[in-house]
Amino acid sequence: MDYREAGVDIAAADEAKARIRALARSTFSAAVLSEIGSFGGMFRPDLTRYRDPVLVASTDGVGTKIKVAIEAGVHDTVGYDLVAHCANDILVQGATPLFFLDYIALGRMDPDRVESIVRGLAHACSELGCPLIGGETAEMPGTYGEDDYDLAGFIVGVVERVKALPRGVQEGDLLLGLPSTGLHTNGYSLARKVLFERMGHRIDTELPELGTSLGAALLAPHRSYLAALEPLLLRGKIRALAHITGGGFRGNIPRVLPPGLGARVRRESWAVPPLFRLIQRGGAVSEEEMYRIFNMGVGMVAVVAASDLHDVEHSLERRGETSFVIGSVVAGEGVAFE
Amino acid sequence: MDYREAGVDIAAADEAKARIRALARSTFSAAVLSEIGSFGGMFRPDLTRYRDPVLVASTDGVGTKIKVAIEAGVHDTVGYDLVAHCANDILVQGATPLFFLDYIALGRMDPDRVESIVRGLAHACSELGCPLIGGETAEMPGTYGEDDYDLAGFIVGVVERVKALPRGVQEGDLLLGLPSTGLHTNGYSLARKVLFERMGHRIDTELPELGTSLGAALLAPHRSYLAALEPLLLRGKIRALAHITGGGFRGNIPRVLPPGLGARVRRESWAVPPLFRLIQRGGAVSEEEMYRIFNMGVGMVAVVAASDLHDVEHSLERRGETSFVIGSVVAGEGVAFE
């Protein structure tokens, strides 16, 4: 008996690694001191411009959005999602990315698929100036179905300690919503159940209200808010950020508010995109549950001083970024909708 | 419809998070500036004793060893494995750990199981002085069977640039093997197929040659070599390290040798533990394939100058560490067994 009979194909793994290496190298900067294939990725951070640098690290997956990717046979967008999601998570602390690593586990080692996933990772990493310095690709027959896989991403960034967020949030501060590009990476178990099982749609069903196929709408990449927000962070114009991921508004906004403060959110202050309403109607999902699971069109919430609002809006506009005031910070706790 | 009907239990997730938080906190040092539950974990590294600090990061899983954990109903050891494996990977570059993050994905959110996994993580993190500063716990019905899960770990360490390994490896250097505690985290797909399917053993089969049950032997935790090797690294007595993981001897030793140099390994220089021989006999696995998949009793190989051998052996002995010269660095490439 050999490894291949046990379901592990080392030749396919070597082929996948060779393709990963080339893609990852395209994301490298002079700070990367190792090649892909080393036991550890080596990164020499330039910390000279920091007085008191704090490393900020986060890990995440893309959940069952992968199931949609498999159904559609499109695997680069979930790679992109993974990086954007992780970068947004450390941005919440005010940090900009240093480097990224990925974990890909598959039921069957398929070099084409791995290459496609990593192409998406590398694309996002290049956009964010965040080299992909390492990763693991594991063939795990038995844990994953033959056509199935999972992804986890790990990011490390840095922030000047005194500039770390949240800081200085006060009653009366405004909540500025930045638009999402779709479901991002949350709520896919419910969305799939409603859209495919209950409503009987297929991945290639064209829906006029979405202006595209269901697959394309569901796979719309999770966007990164780094480019839009970095100038404002550097200028100290953001008091807190909440990435609207699993747990939705109630789960994420309070995470960045100090004790004794809550949020009031006016639901009518932005237009919920049609995809969310489609899921809500199709599954008879309560309004409450929708805002607990989905981003509802708002992917990132920035807390800004009321006196900075025009400055912040103007800065965002100049970068082609839409934003809308969705509420304010109030005495109390949690999130109250109105 | 709600999230729970779609297979995602937010209440169970909250319960799991609460238990994780307490365990993770037990690993914290003063360098950790965030609580578990922040979007990103914040770590303030003390880099004052480094002239030119290089961050070294690695990610890994524990492969289908998880299947054995599930079968045995024991989940803390795979948590321990994950940390030890990652710490060994950065040790190969000469780095000592700064912090760790984990990704746990399950078919069904089971707070007891998550707690058990994280207890193992926290135990290893405490031992290694490497705080667990963040993680993700994802319920992914459909990707994982109801009783199934996967783990990925992510570690960041630091090394003084001029002390990074490998450095100065020369022809004539000796290969010093450090014993493994079992299969560590590699080869489980083959081991399970041979032991359970072909040989018909069960997880609780007591095997006299192992002196324990098969489950206990297979779940023996992956050991960390940090404590044994750190003093030698600080004194510059190690030229290279190879962590014997997936790919075995041929896959891992050449990764740390410079071009033009290979390794000669004398198989008779150490006693291969009975578990490996059991798998080999039971599956009629070739000797070649065994050394390509398994560590065969040697979990870490250190490359040392011949003139340092006695010093190194003495230092290891003083720490209660066994070691054996298993071969040498020779002109050529790859690994030649004799």
Quick take:
The structure is a homodimer of 338-residue chains. Chain A is an alpha+beta fold and 338 residues long. Chain A has eleven helices and 13 strands.
Tally the helices of chain A: what do you get? 11
- Structure class of chain A: alpha+beta
Poorly predicted segments of chain A: none
* Beta-strand share of residues of chain A: 15-25%
CATH topology of the largest domain in chain A: Phosphoribosyl-aminoimidazole Synthetase, Chain A, domain 2
| Secondary structure: helix percent of chain A | 25-40%
Principal-axes shape call of chain A: globular
- Biggest pleated sheet of chain A: 6 strands, mixed
CATH top level of the largest domain in chain A is Alpha Beta
Radius of gyration of chain A: 21 Å
Roughly how many Å apart are the termini of chain A? 65 Å
Total DSSP E strands of chain A: 13
Strand order of the largest sheet of chain A: 9-11-6-12-10-13
- Give the CATH superfamily of the largest domain in chain A: PurM-like C-terminal domain
Query: In oligomeric terms, what are we looking at?
Result: homodimer
The overall pLDDT average of chain A reads: 96
Number of domains of chain A: 2
